[in-house]
Amino acid sequence: MMARLEGKVALITGGASGIGMEVAKAYIAEGAQVAIMGLADDKLDAATASLGGDTISIAGDVRNYADNERAVAETVEAFGGLDIFVANAGVWDWGTRMVDMTPDQLEATYDEVLGTNLKGYMLGAKAAAVALAKRKGCMIFTLSTASVNSAGGGIVYTASKHAGLGVMRQLAYELAPHVRVNGVAVGAALTDLRGPSSLGLEGKSIKELPLKEAAPMFLPMGEQPEPSAFTAPYVLLAADGENASMTGTAIDCMCGYNIRGATGPNGWGDFDPAAS
């Protein structure tokens, strides 16, 4: 049976770890040639060596349009075209509430988190659109429980992911019928997703959270999946065939989070207006 992505070329931002790297593995297993984009560090080199197959790595910052443009150009040069663009690079705000940030922290965290999670998606999409249109390709955005729910992050992360859902839908409208644009709303995954430097959290990884222990409290199935468990929708959305008309859709891959919701204090919680 022919691999579902045989002959396809994919560019994945944030592809050196976490969901991005697992998607890269899944694409390679399905016959695709893959370029991963990430910040220039040892992790990017190690990821490329680990992935093997038809893989290249491209160092760059998704917040910079020239880097996105170069990533697309290097992918096309290496593999002859581009069929799939996965906007995946992200930063998490560790659920930091607005009332717990100083005004300066709020401003800086907004710029840092939305710069990666939203501006990075838009710049990558802009850079990839023409190359994708030439091959009737597709874009896939990594979204989140925080794209449609509260408490999947703090005020800034939630804003970035709600906005990412809107950008995905708008681009599906703008780029039709030449490029399909969809998203995968991923639940909390044990990845190396880091915090923002604006809050002094750049060294902290989401893997430090006790997600496996907490899973029975907030996931109906009672277990915390590994990152590899989230990749099937990315393959489905990238493949040709029965889903070829699917666009503007966010596939729910939240592990049932949105039918139970977050645990913890409701409403204002322990917010004390008199102390703010």
UniProtKB/TrEMBL annotation:
Belongs to the short-chain dehydrogenases/reductases (SDR) family. It comes from Aurantiacibacter sediminis. Keywords: Oxidoreductase. It holds the Pfam family adh_short. This is SDR family NAD(P)-dependent oxidoreductase. Gene3D superfamilies: NAD(P)-binding Rossmann-like Domain. InterPro entries: NAD(P)-bd_dom_sf (IPR036291), Sc_DH/Rdtase_CS (IPR020904), SDR_fam (IPR002347).
